[in-house]
Amino acid sequence: MSEQTQSNSGNTDWLDKHCLIDRYRLFVLAYIETHNGTEAARRAGYKQPEVQAARMLKNDKVRAAIEEGRAQVGEKAMLADQDVAKHWLPMALAAPREQ
Predict the structure, then answer these.
(1) Domain span including residue 18
(2) Does a structural domain hold residue 41?
(3) For the chain, what is the domain count?
(4) Residue 14 covered by a domain
(5) Would you say 58 and 78 are in contact if contact means Cβ atoms under 8 Å apart?
(6) pTM for the full model?
(7) Assigned domain for 28 exists
(8) By CB distance 3.0 to 4.6 Å, which of 6, 8, 46, 48 could disulfide with 41?
(9) What is the phi/psi pair of residue 57, to 5°?
(10) pLDDT digits (tens, 9 = 90+) for 15-73
(11) With the C-alpha atoms ordered 9, 4, 33, 53, is the resulting torsion angle positive or negative?
């Protein structure tokens, strides 16, 4: 996998089990980020992104990788929300200071 794929996506170990070529991996990661097939195909380096986006989104392996990637993003977002709540909860429950 290219350095660009690794640097843009963080940990992509979950993507390995889908056995995708590098360009498909780039497409999946870009699609998860943008939610736009044409833009994802453009970022993956396809010359005809409109045509390739439609083709890629019909590929079962690509769709499975996108679904798993979205789940990973959702899980990370939920964990981040929990961290925020842990930080602010003590302040929210604290007694107001008298002035």
Answers:
(1) 3-69
(2) yes
(3) 1
(4) yes
(5) no
(6) 0.63
(7) yes
(8) 46
(9) -70, -10
(10) 788 788 899 999 999 999 999 999 999 999 999 999 999 999 999 999 999 999 888 76
(11) negative
